[in-house]
Amino acid sequence: MPVKYLLTNGNRELRADGIFTWTLPALAAKLSTGKNMLVCPSAGVCAQLCYARSGTYNFSNVKKAHVRNLESIINDPEGWKAQLSNELKAKRYQGGKSVRIHDSGDFFSEQYFLLWLEIAKENPDVFFYAYTTCRHR
After folding, report:
1. How far apart are CA 126 and CA 116, in angstroms?
2. Alpha carbon distance 84, 78 (integer Å)
3. Which helix H or strand E contains 82, and what residues bound it?
4. pLDDT tens per residue, range 67-121
5. What is the reported pTM?
6. Phi-psi region of 131 (alpha: psi -120 to 50; beta: other; left: phi over 0)
7. Strand 98-101, strand 19-22: pairing
């Protein structure tokens, strides 16, 4: 049985550079509970121009995967953090690999942002980066 990773190896360009990605829904999502959630709470004009609200991001299987990622954090944040930190110890992440936090979505809460900080501290050999409009205080 193949290993199930939380991070994907991104698009062709990112893959060639050894960059893995973590993805959430773009802007907003309808959760399996029926509740709507704003995933990019600081989005301004970028919400109208967001590339992640078009193209392959709109495929139903892609949207479901992004919502599944979001719900894994909401339902068990510490379990998600532990699973991801453990995953980052795998051989595929060694040797100068990077993680792009969000090729869609954003830091939707301070707690979520702090989980990523802890993950980065626990994995100093992996380079983490994110493009964000996050304005949490």
Report:
1. 12
2. 10
3. helix 77-87
4. 999 999 999 999 999 999 999 999 989 888 899 998 888 899 999 999 999 999 9
5. 0.87
6. beta
7. parallel
Using alpha carbons, select from 129, 110, 132 the residue that is nearest to residue 46: 132
Write the single-letter amino acid at 42. Answer: S
44's tokens: 């301004």
Task: Quickly tell me which residue has 């954003």 as its tokens.
Answer: 106
- Contacts by 29-33, CB closer than 8 A, 24 or more apart: 29/63, 29/66, 29/67, 29/70, 30/67, 31/67, 31/70, 31/71, 31/74, 32/67, 32/71
Q: How many other CB atoms sit within 10 Å of the CB of residue 10?
A: 20
Q: Is residue 104 a contact partner of residue 24, using CB atoms and an 8 Å limit?
A: yes
